[in-house]
């Protein structure tokens, strides 16, 4: 069971990038997908989070520029980033919870992180 993040790279300010977070295993065993980022010298911050009702909550700094979506067929959680700014430069991490056996004969939600993908926006 793992999450893998793809799609980072180098882009000029004003450009776009699309990130994908691929989840392994059963699509329906995953929940609470989110994207976080950690910029140079900064703490990790929440960028977008998929709620149980299907809506996405965004950080104020990315509202109206980023679009997060869940693809159930591909079992991915995607982040479309538009009008990128140098301040968006960070390592982006996906995060989700997986329903699994957490102890012998006990089941619950375990949190997983993807490996991170670098996004660099030049001015």
Question: How many strands appear in the DSSP assignment?
Answer: 11
Task: Write down the secondary-structure element order.
Answer: EEEEEEEEEEE
Instruction: Determine the structural class based on helices, strands and strand pairing.
Output: mainly beta
Outline the low-pLDDT stretches.
none
Shape: elongated
Query: Can you give the helix content as a percent range?
Result: under 10%
List the total number of helices.
Answer: 0
Q: What is the CA-CA span between the terminal residues?
A: 38 Å
Would you kindly provide a written description of the structure presented here, covering whatever features stand out?
The protein is mainly beta and 123 residues long. 0% of the residues lie in helices and 59% in strands. It has no helices and 11 strands. The protein has strands spanning 3-6, 9-12, 17-23, 30-38, 45-50, 56-58, 66-71, 76-81, 90-103, 106-113, 117-122. The strands form 2 sheets. Strands 2, 4, 5, 6, 9, 10 and 11 form a 7-stranded mixed beta sheet that branches. Strands 1-3-8-7 form a 4-stranded antiparallel beta sheet, with no helix packed on it. The radius of gyration is 15 Å and the shape is elongated. The relative contact order is 0.32. The mean pLDDT is 95.
């Amino acid at each position: 069971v793992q999450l893998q993040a793809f799609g980072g790279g180098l882009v000029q300010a004003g450009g776009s990038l699309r990130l994908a977070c691929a989840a392994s295993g059963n699509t329906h065993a995953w929940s609470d997908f989110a994207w976080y980022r950690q910029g140079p010298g900064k703490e990790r911050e929440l960028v977008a989070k998929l709620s149980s009702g299907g809506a996405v909550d965004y950080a104020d700094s990315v509202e109206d520029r980023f679009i997060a979506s869940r693809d159930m067929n591909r079992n991915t959680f995607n982040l479309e980033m538009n009008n990128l700014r140098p301040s968006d430069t960070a390592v982006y991490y996906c995060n989700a919870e997986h329903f699994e056996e957490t102890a012998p004969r006990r089941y619950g939600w375990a949190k997983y992180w993807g490996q991170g993908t670098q996004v660099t926006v030049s001015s």
